[in-house]
Amino acid sequence: MTSNSVKELLSKNLIVQEVVVNGWVKSFRSNRFIALNDGSTLANIQCVVDFEKLDEHVLKQIHTGAALKVSGTLVESQGSGQSVEIQVKDIFVHGGANPDTYPIQPKKHSLEFLREKAHLRIRTNTFAAIMRVRSALSFAIHQYFTENGFYYFHSPIITGSDAEGAGEMFRVTTLEGKNPPLNEDGSINFKEDFFGKETNLTVSGQLEAEAYAMALGKVYTFGPTFRAENSNTSRHLAEFWMVEPEVAFNDLDDNMDLAEDFIKKVVQYILQHCGEDLQFLEKRLLDEEKSKPQAERSAMPLIEKLKFVAENTFQRVTYTEAIEILRNSKPNKKKKFQYIIDEWGADLQSEHERYLVEKHFKCPVILFDYPAKIKAFYMRLNEDGKTVRAMDILFPGIGEIVGGSQREERLEVLKEKMAALNIPEEELWWYLDLRKFGSAVHSGFGLGFERLVLFATGMGNIRDVIPFPRTPQNAEF
Ligand code: 4AD
Ligand code: MG
């Protein structure tokens, strides 16, 4: 007999039928009730068993975490708390879970404890809910771009170029089996690199996306990217996923319109499709925040916050306007900013970004027209000669969620900017070709996928929204 998912059983369409379900024991009580979950949905199916009729060997193995196959009749539940339940006829134990050693017991575990158990934490309600929302967001991203005429293309992971020019790359080295090339002292010869060439793990698929946009018009890439920055913050990972659309003939205004519409639509998608998980995560957050001082609590419950973003216009301000606002502000009555922006041209610190978003505008903010010297080489220089057509989107509680720009399409200007930053033309000869043959205005942006998942789930640490986080401390799993 084929089995059903817990989600299908809870939809009540199979009532009074013989059913089979596979799953893991969440809890069991009074030697009679097993709460079984298979990951298909947040809720468990209650299985009512007559333990006296059950084989003793089977009984002994029913503990939290054990994998079971349960057969029985699906009936309306007499008890409160669930609408249907299974009157069990038979149980097969796929695999037990020793209660003395299985770490995920039916009690509250701290997120720090669960981070050490990245392979098992997905069996908790919190992580299952987060990862279902992550999966839904990922689908919504592909759906949005497909419906809007974009082509999905796969940018390479191994690359010879540093797209951001920030030198934060992981080098790729060839280890030929058990015999890597060695130096005379016996240490590994890292100079051998990728079959004799110097290559890195990509920091961004943007440069390749530009090549594809200049032929397919509207493209996007969505894949893992790598940064060798030694940042131990709750917003940085060494390996993170980035969504990068690139559009030929779009200027900076079009780019801002696209980014805003895109974010709103994917947030709307999860509001429509992940209601149960979002309600669970909202309640979790409210419980967690009860122990925090009022000032540190979120201003809005999670779902209200998501609706707010989906329905309200993002505030657009230039860097220069933002600096004026910061200069004229006092973040709180006693204290000024730790870093005061008194010189035009300085990069914003996260405390400034938070002030603009959370205190001043109280909504997502798109900052644009940044000083050229704090932004990457490929951004389109404005007519003033000192700002570039860059844009960052700042989100409440997150900070920068998107970084993008209109790209420099003029060959000579691009060459000058590269020369000023000592970027050799030979390294990016193919990128320069795009400006020699059929060059045109084009724009794009990169959205940090985990930062979007952080926002969507209300979680506080980026390590909790990616399955197996890679940070300077942790790449164990
Ligand atoms: O601002 P970034 O560095 O921009 C780029 O890489 C551009 N080439 C993108 C483009 O125009 N196609 O990164 C883009 C976004 C950031 O806004 C942030 O959300 C996320 O990627 N991000 C990180 N997320 C997690 N961990 C890190 N270490 C991140 N670095 C950037
Ligand atoms: Mg950035």
Automatic annotation (TrEMBL):
It comes from the Bacteria. PROSITE patterns: AA_TRNA_LIGASE_II. One of its GO terms (molecular function) is asparagine-tRNA ligase activity. GO terms for biological process: asparaginyl-tRNA aminoacylation. The keyword Repressor does not apply. Gene3D superfamilies: Bira Bifunctional Protein, Domain 2 (3.30.930.10), Nucleic acid-binding proteins (2.40.50.140). Residues 131-467 form the Aminoacyl-transfer RNA synthetases class-II family profile domain. NCBIfam families: asnS, PRK03932.1. This is Asparagine--tRNA ligase. It comes from Pricia antarctica. The lineage of its organism: Bacteria, Pseudomonadati, Bacteroidota, Flavobacteriia, Flavobacteriales. The gene is asnS.
